[in-house]
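Hi there,

I know you've been waiting on this one. I reran it after we fixed the sequence typo, so this is the corrected version. Both the input and the resulting structure follow.
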Amino acid sequence: MQKFYGLFTLLVLAFFACNEEALPGTFEWSKEQGFSFEENYYSPDSLMYFKITDIQDSRCPQGATCIWAGMVRVKLSVHTSVVDTLWLDTYNNQSDTIHDFAFQLMNVSPYPELEKEIEKEDYRVSLRIFRI
C-alpha cells in the first residue's frame, strides 16, 4: 500500500510539472494578459512583481457627446530590489520602462457608460510586460 501512495504522489507531481499554464498570480513575458486592481503579479523568475494601485478613467462615456475622447491612467507599483512607481495612459504614455522591465498598456475595460460608475475592482487592465 505504501508503494501505491508513493507511485500516486510521483504521478501527481509529474502531472503538475508538465502543466505549462502559469501559476495564479504570475504572468508570462511578452504576452498580452489581463490584470486586476490591487493584486500582486509575479514574473516567472520572481525577479519582479507589480500591482495596479490606481486607475483614473476620464474617457468619454458611451452615450455622451464629448469634446475630447479622454483617457485612462494606470498606476503600477513595481517591486524589484527597490520599489518604483510607473504611470501608463491611453493618450501619450502607453509604454514605459523601469530597470530591466518594459510595460506596455494595451487596453482597459470595461469602457465607461453614461450614468454608470465603475468600481476600481471591476477594471481589467491588459498589459504586455517585457524583460529588456
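Quick highlight: The chain has one helix and eight strands.

Best,
R. S.
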